[in-house]
Amino acid sequence: MRLSRYFLPVLKEIPAEAQIVSHRLMLRAGMIKQAQAGIYSWLPLGFKVLKKIENIVHEEQIRAGHIPMLMPTLQSADLWRESGRYDDYGEEMLRISDRHGRDMLYGPTNEELITDIFRSHVSSYKDLPLTLYHIQWKFRDEVRPRFGVMRGREFLMKDGYNFDVDKAAAMHAYNRHLVSYLRSYERMGLQAIPMRADSGPIGGDDTHEFLVLADTGESEVFYDSAVTDLTFGDRAIDYDDVAQCQGILEEFTSRYARTDETHDPALFDQIPEDRRRTARGIEVGQIFYFGTKYSEALGATVQTADGAAVPVHMGSHGIGVSRLVGAIIEASHDDKGIIWPEGVTPFHCGIVNLKQGDAEADGACEALYGSLTALGLEPLYDDRKERAGGKFATMDLIGLPWRITVGPRGLKNGVVELTSRRTGESEELTPQEAVEKVARIYGVID
Amino acid sequence: MRLSRYFLPVLKEIPAEAQIVSHRLMLRAGMIKQAQAGIYSWLPLGFKVLKKIENIVHEEQIRAGHIPMLMPTLQSADLWRESGRYDDYGEEMLRISDRHGRDMLYGPTNEELITDIFRSHVSSYKDLPLTLYHIQWKFRDEVRPRFGVMRGREFLMKDGYNFDVDKAAAMHAYNRHLVSYLRSYERMGLQAIPMRADSGPIGGDDTHEFLVLADTGESEVFYDSAVTDLTFGDRAIDYDDVAQCQGILEEFTSRYARTDETHDPALFDQIPEDRRRTARGIEVGQIFYFGTKYSEALGATVQTADGAAVPVHMGSHGIGVSRLVGAIIEASHDDKGIIWPEGVTPFHCGIVNLKQGDAEADGACEALYGSLTALGLEPLYDDRKERAGGKFATMDLIGLPWRITVGPRGLKNGVVELTSRRTGESEELTPQEAVEKVARIYGVID
């Protein structure tokens, strides 16, 4: 993309309403614009990051054997009356009446609707196991929406639902979700720690929240520092292997790691003192096993091998897709702006032309742009007639992990400059070497 | 995908509520499930087609230089009061009150919201031309929703908005949209004819609707048969070339083609009698130039080169993404079921194992599955223990354009059968040849 043709409305001033750094940076970098309290338009740069995160979630869910679909945003109130949650849910549920006076609601979650789909179509244990998920906009009418997309009212969430014949099978689904979530967050450049959590209005016994450590997190968290040494890495995983998935769950959840809701000071004190940590965390996902709570309320049963009709065992599993954009920025920024991890960056690298209009500089930039594009990479080329300082400030603000700087002085020696946004380190390379290095970083060449 | 692990709830009976063939087939093929009147869940097979259509629209819009973003589903009533449409829009607008009693609405279209974004960030002609678009769920509270996803209440639409300094520039944007739409529909296997149309509640002078001819279309259309001879094909297009885009507009719109709303019998009678056609059509898109209607109401002005402040010239341009799923089926089916065009098929081909459990047949199917997948294709392998007739009926119903049939008898002679869903023609090929033929059809090998 050439910046002269893009829509990147960066702001010079720090917006007064934004209290936390991710909200400030998303506004300044032209990623979002508030439409109403807690409701945002995703401007082109923000939309690109949102899609990258969504794609990672899709890829990892499909890899785990979970099946994508899409439920609507608006749901029937009657279904929520069946489960008993219509009255329970409180004022966070946005209630709507249509032109015929029928009660609807903007879905805050989808346990009822997915269970209705299941009970309409599945009646035999032979069709299990089954995990369906979707990535769809939800609405929760927060009384005081704030922190930008971190606590918005209209938000994008992945929510998945497993249907299994018994608790053991459902716990394997639970473990598959834990593993796929660990992989997903790592691909986004995040360390998200699974912590024992409280089930809240979803219900159920087993639940873990995934928390990203950040000073601005809304939850206080307590953990054994040994948990932050764990990484999933590129280990091979067979999602049908019950023991392997269970082993990963144990590896990542056997150390103490809890939010304030489930914190147990006595247990915490048993950790060696030098490993006890208190910090703040941002919740970016949660998995639940809740057994037959919804299947019993809504009559979702299957026939087992011996002919008995049993309610299916279920769980639900969510990733806050739009919230993650803010969470990643909270975890990865500096005074100059955002620092995108490579996995979610909106453009793979920036190209800064120090002397727009100079035939040689323009030509070198166009050649770089063409080479990177031909490799399947997406560069953002700042081809505006602006001074170098302004171009650098914009690139730093929007946080592309790599920048290639092209100027007449370097070109005289046959070199351009490749700079890491994270470390600030630069090296002089031929244009060809710079392209190859960037391509190698993103794994498009060996 | 192995069918034993998929969620494909095909129905045996013809659902009573479905009046048109696409609605019946989408229910029978397990593509959708109604959640409420005019509101559908997209089951896995339907979701895959929806995504394919969405991807084509994204690719062609980006190719035309239009910039993707995303606006929220819920909008502020105040913005619609500014434009004067809040009261005008009538009962089709779903009006909502939040917990604080603030008036909102579920967006039926986005002229107001995009103009608000524009006026907040753009003030100079130097930032033009600019076309922003999004693909987002909309809601129109139809009094009698029917025909499945063809006239739903919650529906997925691509809507794009151009901002230009004067009418001439805006008409080039109009032409770019016409060209990109022609390309998009052809990639979906559709012939969509641009017809002079009525602007309705959007307003404006210049507008064309794109109609797909089908017996179940809601509009009566009148045209010169010469228009159906036109195809866009794979001609090269430079979207910056004003004359080229204008030429394509003229080529595709100079013959008579109108809906009943704008039909002019006197003009129609001037067409040679043997080329006069009356038919029914399904509207799958519309483009509008409406000048300064919204920019004046909302104060969206830019400063021109000579320092004057002028309201921007705008247009809006829509493609009915969810409706297209139905429209494609209306245009492409037979007694046995759907016939997907290659461009939008949910799976590239089916693999039918005639003797599940037979070691040789199972092995050959697995090998085919592996080879196709390695080429980046997505086969659907019917690995269920069902009789052959049932497997064929399912494949015919869900409409994959190509089917590879594997059985012990053929394997003895080293062959499998490749069958075209459209023609019903089969040929015997070695497994290797079958894979190569399918790969060539989809352009993944030469």
From TrEMBL, chains A, B:
The keyword Ligase applies. Keywords: Aminoacyl-tRNA synthetase, ATP-binding, Cytoplasm, Ligase, Nucleotide-binding, Protein biosynthesis. It is found in: Cytoplasm. Homodimer. Its EC number is 6.1.1.15. This is Proline--tRNA ligase. Its main location: cytoplasm. Belongs to the class-II aminoacyl-tRNA synthetase family. ProS type 2 subfamily. Gene3D superfamilies: Anticodon-binding domain, Bira Bifunctional Protein, Domain 2. It catalyses: tRNA(Pro) + L-proline + ATP = L-prolyl-tRNA(Pro) + AMP + diphosphate. One of its GO terms (cellular component) is cytosol. SUPFAM superfamilies: Class II aaRS ABD-related (SSF52954), Class II aaRS and biotin synthetases (SSF55681). Pfam families: HGTP_anticodon, tRNA-synt_2b. PROSITE patterns: AA_TRNA_LIGASE_II. GO terms for molecular function: ATP binding; proline-tRNA ligase activity. The keyword Chaperone does not apply. Coiled coil: none annotated. One of its GO terms (biological process) is prolyl-tRNA aminoacylation. Residues 33-341 form the Aminoacyl-transfer RNA synthetases class-II family profile domain. It is an enzyme of class 6 (ligase). InterPro entries: aa-tRNA-synt_IIb (IPR002314), aa-tRNA-synth_II (IPR006195), aa-tRNA-synth_II/BPL/LPL (IPR045864), Anticodon-bd (IPR004154), Anticodon-bd_dom_sf (IPR036621), Pro-tRNA-ligase_IIa (IPR002316), Pro-tRNA-synth_IIa_bac-type (IPR004500), Pro-tRNA_synthetase (IPR050062). Catalyzes the attachment of proline to tRNA(Pro) in a two-step reaction: proline is first activated by ATP to form Pro-AMP and then transferred to the acceptor end of tRNA(Pro).
